[in-house]
Amino acid sequence: MLFNSLVFLVFFVLFFLVWTWAKKEDLRRWVCMLVFSFVFYAWWDWRFLFLILFSGLVDYGAALKMQSQPAQKRFWLIASLLANIGSLAIFKYSKFIAQTIDALALEFGLEWELYSHLPAFSLIVPVGISFYTFQSMSYTIDVYKGKLRPTQNIAHFFAYLSMFPQLVAGPIIRAKDMLQQLAEDRRVSAVEVWLGLRLMVYGFFQKMVLADNLAPIVNQSFWDNNTQPSCMYWWMVMLAFSFQIYFDFAGYSSIARGLAKLMGYRFKSNFNHPYHAISLRDFWSRWHISLSTWFRDYVYIPLGGTRGAKWKGYRNMWITMLISGLWHGPALNFILWGAVHAACLSVERLTKWPTYLHQFRAGRGLAFLLVLVQVVVAWVFFRATSFEQAIRIVGHLFSTNLEGTHLIVERYFDTLVFLGLAISVEGWYYLKRSHKRLRLATKNIVYDSFSMALLITACVYFRGPASEFIYFQF
C-alpha cells in the first residue's frame, strides 16, 4: 500500500476514525494499532505476515529469557541473531548466494544448478524485511547489553515492531525511544495535529512533485544504452537521481513522522539535509540517520571503532560500509557503492582535508562541492544496472565531450525546472538555518498556512508519474 495512493487515503481515514475511539482504552488501542498495521502490510502480500510474527516472537521470547536466565543470555542473543539473519538470507540473499555458488562450481567443472532448485517463495523479497528485522535485532542486542529492560507486554512489543507508518521503509526506530511512548496514554494537542499534517504535506510534496518528476529522465537514461555520452547530460542525470532518491526517501520518512505525530508518537528525524554536508563524515551523520546510527552502534563500535591501531579503524570502517551496501541488496552495484564511500572516507580520514578547507570561507564552499561530487559519483554505482554501465557513466562524467550541450535546455527543460526546484528547496532551508531573522520570520501561522496551501496546490497540479518509493525494494 503506497502512501501516495487512493487506497491509502481510504485506509488513513478509516484508521483515524477508529483510532479516535480506540486510543482511550488500552486493549482497544493495541488491537486497533496491530490490526491496521497488519492489514497495511498484508495489502502487499499477506503470505509474508508470518515473517514479522516469526521475527517478533523469537526476539520477544529471547529478550525475556535473557532476563530470566542471565547466565545463558549469550545463547539467546545468538539464537535471535541467527533467526533474523537466517530470514534475510533465505528471503533476500538466497538468489545471490545460489548464483555465486553455481558460478564458483562452474570454475571447477561442476554443474550444481542450486539457483534453479530454489523454492519460488525465496525469490520474492518481502517488502520492508531489512527494516523490521534490523529493528527487531536492535531490541535483543540492547537487552543483552543491559541498555534496555525487556517489555512483558507482547502487544507493546508488536506495536513497536509493526507500527504501520514506518513498517516497510523506516525510519528504523529503537525500542528505548518507543516502548515508553507506547506504554503511556498519549494526548495529541492541536499544535501536534498541525505539525503532523505539515510533515505529511511536505513529505507528499517531496515525493510527488520533486522525486516523481525527476524519475523519468533517470529511468530513461539507465534503461537506454544508446543515450548520448555528453558530460553535461550525465551530470544533469546524476544530479537528478541524487535529488530523486533523497526526496523520495525523505518524503516517505516525513509522511511516517507526520502519521506518528497524529497518533501521539514521536519518531526521530531520518534526514538532516545531507546535501548541505561539508565532509563525507558530515554527510553520513545526515543521510538515513536511523540506519547509519544502527551500523555505528551495532557493527562499527562493536568491531572496535577507532580504538587500537590505525589500520583497525580503517578495517572496521570498510567492513561497516560494505555491509551497509549489502543491506540494500545482494548485488555488486550496492557493494561497490559501499566500497566507493569507504575509499573516500579513508582518504578523508587519512588526509584530514576537510579540517584544512574549513579554516576559511571559500574553503567551506570548496569542501561542499568536493563532497557533492563524491556522493554523486558513488550514486552511479548504486543506480547502475551493471558494473560495465557504471564505469561507462563515470567515464562520461569526467570526459570533455560536450556534444549536444547547447540542446540540453531545449530538450530537457521540464527536468531542469524540477531539478532547479529541488536545489532551491534545499537552498531555502540553508538560508533559514544561516539567517536568524529569516528563521524567526517564518515561524508563524500565516507563513505555515501559506506554505501548506502552496505545497498542496503543487501536489495536485504538478505531481509526477506515480511510482513506488525507491526504498520499498530494500
UniProtKB/TrEMBL annotation:
Residue ranges crossing the lipid bilayer per the database entry: 75-94, 114-134, 154-173, 232-255, 317-344, 365-382, 452-472
E.C. number(s) listed in UniProt: 2.3.1.-
Signal peptide limits: none
Membrane topology label: Multi-pass membrane protein
Compartment list: Cell membrane
Chief localisation class: membrane
Record flagged with keyword Ribosomal protein: no
GO molecular function: acyltransferase activity
GO annotation (BP), single: alginic acid biosynthetic process
GO cellular component terms, semicolon-separated: plasma membrane
Alphabetized UniProt keyword annotations: Acyltransferase, Cell membrane, Membrane, Transferase, Transmembrane, Transmembrane helix
Protein name: Probable poly(Beta-D-mannuronate) O-acetylase (EC)
Taxonomic source organism: uncultured Aureispira sp
Taxonomy of the source species: Bacteria, Pseudomonadati, Bacteroidota, Saprospiria, Saprospirales
